[in-house]
Structure formats: C-alpha cells, structure tokens
C-alpha cells in the first residue's frame, strides 16, 4: 500500500486491541485486520481502551508503536453495559445475524449507545485535522459520522460494516431503524463485505425510506452516499511467515503426535451463537452415526475462546455446548478415543497456524457471518503438497470468494456429515486443485487489498474541500 503524503488516516473502532488481562488469543478478526492495515498506512487509531472508569473523563491515552499511534478512552460502567453489552451485542448483533428471537429492544440500550457515540465524537473531534481521512468501523458506531458532522467535521468520512446487513423485514423490527439508516447518509462511503449485504441495505433504503440508488450511490433528500462491496482479507504474508515460525512448527508437531495417526478436523471460533457450533457438533455426530467404521479414525478439535461473557445469551451457548460435547463424548468415546476435544481457550495465531496445518479438514460452519477470517487462515496455513479441505458455510461472507471450498448449509446435519465424508475421501489431486484456487484468492485479496480499495474509494467519494489554512500554500 502506498502511504498517503497528503492526508492522515484516522481509524475509529470500538476495539483497538485486546483488553488488558484478556487472553491475547481471543481478539476477533477486526482488531487483527486493522492492526495490519494501520501498520501499512500509518495514522491514528482511536477507540475504547477496554477499561472501565468510575466517571467518564474523555482523557485520551496515547501510545505509539510501529508507526501507529493509538488513542484510547476509558468508558463508564453504564456505557459498557448499555452501549457495548446492551445495544451493540444484545440488540444489533443478534438482529444483524438474523436472530430476532435473541434481540432485545430496550430504550436504555438505545440511549446509552447514542450517549457513548456522542462521547466518542466529543473526544476524537479535537484530534481531527481538516485534511484527515476518517474511517469508522462497525456496528458499535453507526451514528458516529452524523455526530462528527454535528460538530462541524467536513472531512471525508467512510464507514465499514463487518457484520451482515439483515433483510429489510427483519430490520423493520428494530425501533428507530429508519433514524439509524438515515444517520448513515452522513457518510461519504459505506463498505460491506459482500454484494448480498450491500443489496439488503439498498432494499431497506429504497423500500422503507424512499432512497434512490444509481451507479453505486444512494441518495436520500440532499445527502448522497457511495456504497461498495469490499471483502476483508487476512495479512497473508504475515500469516505465511507465522506458519513457518517456531511456534507453528511446535504446535504442528504436538498435534500430529497427539493425533496418533487419526485425521483431525478443526474448528476455531469465538464462543458465539452465530458461529453454528451446536449445529456443527450435531453434524459431526451424524457423521459418526452414519460412518461407524470411521469412529476411531478421526476426531474434532474445537477451539472456542469465551466471548462477551457478561451477556446472558453467550453464557447460555457456553452451557449448551458443554452439555452437547459431553453427551456426544459420553455416547461414542472409548478408553483410547474421544470424538470431540472441546477447548474453551484462545491461542496466539502462530500456534493456530500450526494447528490448522495439522488438520485434514477445516470446519467453518457459521449460521451467519460477516466474513470469517478463520476460513482464510486455514487455507493460508496448508502444506501446498498435501493440503487439507475447507468445509465452509454458504452463509459466511467468505463463501462469495471461496467457491472451491465444500460449501454447505450449516443448518443441515446431513450436509455437514456428507461433506466430512467427502473431504476425508477426496483425492490428493482434487485437494491440491481446490486449494490452489483458494490460496490464490487469499493471497491476492488480502487485508492490504481490502484497505486500499476502501481508502481509494473514500478519497474519490466526493471532491476534497481544501482546508482554509492550507489554501494558497
Ligand atoms: O470485539 P469483540 O466483541 O470481542 O468481537 C470480536 C469482533 O467480532 C466481529 O468480527 C467481525 O469482523 C471480522 C473482520 O471483518 C469478520 O471476519 C467477522 O465475520 C465479523 O464477525 C465484530 O464485527 C468486530 O467488531 C469485533 O471486534
Ligand atoms: O484462539 C483464537 C481464536 C481466534 N483467533 C483469531 O480471531 C480471528 C477471528 O476472526 P473471524 O473473522 O473468523 O471471526 P470474528 O471473531 O471476528 O467474528 C481470527 O483472526 C483468528 O485467528 C485467535 O487469534 N485465537
């Protein structure tokens, strides 16, 4: 990525890095991807520190590391409860993953979300210079662009949504949905991972709000916003280096030794109901039932670091998975074999790289997922001469780019079971053919490609207004 000499980049996201004290392995793909993009680009990365303070002060803690300045603020407990755990993760997250049965619509959450976004706007506004490009990330911060405009910010502001955009009939259940979408017209550019999420946004904007869409631009009244589908990738180069490193090799050997000649199937997901873990276990159980001859020949390693632990739905999914894995193990295990190794712990990505490489199958079966970077990491970690097979949910954003994976419906235990059998029986030639196409895509459409496409589109979204103090220089 060529570094811009004209304008700085201000990235704003809820999570700037893994909160202190949390397992470093549990941070999600967004933090990982943004760290890589900012390393390339330089600039300021602003967001929540992950820390709680008694009273919001707006005091910014700056740190400079590897050419990137991070600027973080602490939030009050009430902000965290209403904004992060409440509106972001009990209202928007389930709704945007098509789970209106789990979505909670509470005025306190909506109020706390708005208040916290106003606090972010007040705090970051003084850091913004007239020529800066501003890039806001994800569903925690839908109204932030409008709040910055209210504070006189005329910069180019882009917004990227990392999760799916729900179908219009589902979004219609959210109180205040129209106001939320209207506020998004204050952005100059909005990015989605897939054409499908982009189309869903257009469907809502046109049918519920009377917006007009033409040549990739949505118009509502006197506001225009450019829309793009821009799928995020991994830092393929860094990942390849990690895969060749000591930790990856140690992990690979450890897994191979403990597999004792059996084929390993691996799943790696934050412990989240959107990841389809119950359905995955049931699909695997169906495979064990339909193929008793395979029982001692395979095992499933599921790595599932706990996530958003203060939210009740996340505690429920954890309990339910403990019960399900326990039942399956109790039913099918023998003295020398356990069908599921279920691990509630996060691992650094270089260790994951070795684990992915040791697995014959990568089992990635979310019920709905904005992208899913694990699918791409699994491919990047494979041995080119003897690669494993990726089984991927057709409801993950990654499926649009990864057509050579075995694409399945994660709600169907039969399809999961059949795909496992197909992958185990697949010839080496076919594995290499599929992997070569997948790997080509992972390398070409990497995190730098993603960030460059977005930032280039943002620069061109509307003519730049030259800052008065720089005019005539
Ligand atoms: O910050 P957390 O609450 O711990 O959650 C972790 C991240 O989860 C979500 O990740 C999404 O972004 C990924 C990268 O684009 C994408 O591959 C994945 O499908 C999404 O689920 C969330 O959107 C992030 O904001 C969180 O940081
Ligand atoms: O134990 C773990 C589990 C996951 N991850 C990383 O967390 C990210 C998960 O991103 P993904 O897009 O798959 O899902 P998200 O958690 O963002 O919804 C990937 O980069 C994983 O390598 C990790 O470092 N250690």
CATH topology of the largest domain, anyone? Rossmann fold
Note the overall shape: globular
* Domain count: 2
Main sheet properties: 10 strands, mixed
Distance between termini?
Answer: 27 Å
Count of helical regions: 16
Pathway: Glycan biosynthesis; trehalose biosynthesis
Family: Belongs to the glycosyltransferase 20 family.
EC number: 2.4.1.15
Subunit structure: Homotetramer.
Which keywords apply here?
Trehalose_OtsA, alpha/beta, transferase, Glyco_trans_20, six-stranded parallel sheet, ten-stranded mixed sheet, binds uridine-5'-diphosphate, binds the ligand O=P(O)(O)OC[C@H]1O[C@H](O[C@H]2O[C@H](CO)[C@@H](O)[C@H](O)[C@H]2O)[C@H](O)[C@@H](O)[C@@H]1O, alpha,alpha-trehalose-phosphate synthase (UDP-forming) activity, 473 residues, Rossmann fold
